[in-house]
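$ ./design --mode recover --in tokens.txt
reading tokens...
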């Protein structure tokens, strides 16, 4: 298939973009792409590719931006129920960590998730996954973490693998058994930490070997935070995970600065995520490392808080900067990377070009997939978007509506635009 005549083709070529290099879109005007099977086999000007591939079936992208599919590197996709009541409580003035300490928050979703059968869990999560897809996300990371007991955490993994199997969107799985202290261990956080590191992680390794032997090992993540896992407990879990061969992630500095970002850098984690109250020392540690700083601006937005990731500082210090939704039932239920981009531009004063790179090639790097996705280059997987806009800056500029006309996933085109409904 030859996709041609795009007003702007954003290639994002050249690999992940570190520090001030962020925002190089590699634009080809009147650009075209040739796709064979699931891969990109040619990228260039429309005239050249039309001449070189005269017999290809064509897809006209006139007046549209053609760009890589969004990669969302941080979601809590799999849960049951909702917490609309807590949103109302928070808007009436009750802090998130207070609701969590009283057995609400994550724990209330844990209760609903444990009680849900497989069919319900998959059906509810599927609707979110499809919403991600029609808004342009072609690969998403997805975490467990609403089980907090070995059997349920494994059930969530199973559900995620089933969703990955059935849907066009690709999922990259993360084990987040350390999302909160399980209610059974309310007064013994160290006991739960020992359960995660000593029992769950070795079982996970074995389980993965039998259930998903062909997939790379999942990431292991920890919520390093006051009232969740302190720095030493986070280190215990992540060190054990690293020894077992798992790639690492961390939730750090969402509310309190405990040193989780520097820990991620020290252990060679793929990413450190949230990073709202990150100290200058932690920023310097990230900047010296290969660990990607993943900002989740919808989380402070969802909680109506005023502080966001110090993106300017991270970029000036030479860190890798990426964006994600954090889609979850508590702090931010939003599936759209387009909204993340619009918010990131305003709340962190970054440009649309920087936000787009942070939501494609750099977010692919945050899940260690930048060799195969996140840009439009020969040999890469054909994951692309045709946006119903003539200029890339409409991303960021516009928000709250879907700008995607078509999603191309592994070379297959899915029309998602509502288009024009003709009345009889
Ligand atoms: O990333 N920080 C921890 N986890 C989620 C919130 C999960 C929840 O409230 O259910 C987050 O914000
Ligand atoms: Fe999260």
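writing sequence...
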């Amino acid at each position: 298939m030859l996709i041609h005549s795009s007003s702007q083709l954003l290639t994002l070529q050249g690999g992940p973009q570190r520090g001030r290099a962020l925002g190089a879109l590699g634009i080809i005007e009147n650009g075209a792409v040739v796709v064979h099977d699931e891969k990109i086999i040619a990228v260039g000007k429309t005239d050249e590719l039309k001449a070189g591939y005269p017999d290809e079936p064509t897809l006209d992208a006139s007046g549209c931006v053609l760009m890589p599919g969004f990669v969302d590197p941080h979601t809590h996709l799999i849960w049951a129920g909702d917490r609309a009541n807590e949103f109302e409580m928070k808007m009436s003035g009750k802090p998130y960590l207070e609701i969590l300490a009283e057995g609400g928050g994550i724990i209330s979703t844990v209760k609903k998730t444990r009680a849900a059968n497989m069919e319900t869990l998959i059906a509810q999560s599927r609707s979110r996954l499809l919403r991600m897809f029609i808004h342009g996300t072609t690969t998403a990371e997805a975490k467990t973490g609403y089980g907090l007991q070995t059997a349920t955490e494994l059930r969530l993994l199973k559900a995620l693998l089933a969703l990955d199997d059935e849907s066009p969107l690709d999922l990259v799985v993360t084990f987040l058994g350390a999302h909160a202290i399980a209610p059974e261990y309310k007064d013994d956080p160290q006991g739960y930490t020992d359960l995660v590191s000593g029992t769950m992680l070795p079982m996970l390794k074995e389980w993965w070997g039998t259930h998903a032997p062909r997939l790379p090992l999942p990431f292991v993540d920890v919520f390093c935070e006051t009232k969740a896992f302190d720095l030493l407990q986070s280190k215990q879990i992540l060190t054990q995970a690293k020894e077992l061969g798992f790639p690492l992630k961390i939730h750090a500095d969402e509310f309190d600065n405990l040193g989780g970002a520097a820990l991620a850098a020290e252990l060679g984690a793929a990413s450190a995520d949230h990073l709202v109250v990150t100290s200058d020392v932690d920023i310097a540690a990230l900047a010296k490392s290969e660990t990607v700083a993943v900002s989740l601006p919808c989380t402070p937005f969802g909680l109506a808080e005023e502080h966001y990731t110090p993106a300017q500082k991270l970029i000036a210090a030479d860190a890798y900067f990426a964006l994600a939704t954090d889609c979850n039932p508590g702090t931010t239920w939003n599936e759209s990377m387009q909204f993340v981009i619009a918010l990131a531009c305003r709340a962190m004063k970054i440009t649309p070009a920087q936000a787009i790179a942070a939501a494609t090639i750099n977010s692919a790097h945050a899940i260690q997939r930048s060799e195969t996705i996140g840009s439009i280059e020969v040999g890469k997987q054909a994951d692309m978007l045709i946006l119903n806009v003539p200029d890339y800056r409409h991303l960021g500029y516009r928000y709250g509506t879907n700008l995607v006309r078509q999603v191309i996933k592994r070379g297959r085109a899915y029309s998602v635009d509502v288009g024009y409904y003709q009345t009889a």
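exit 0
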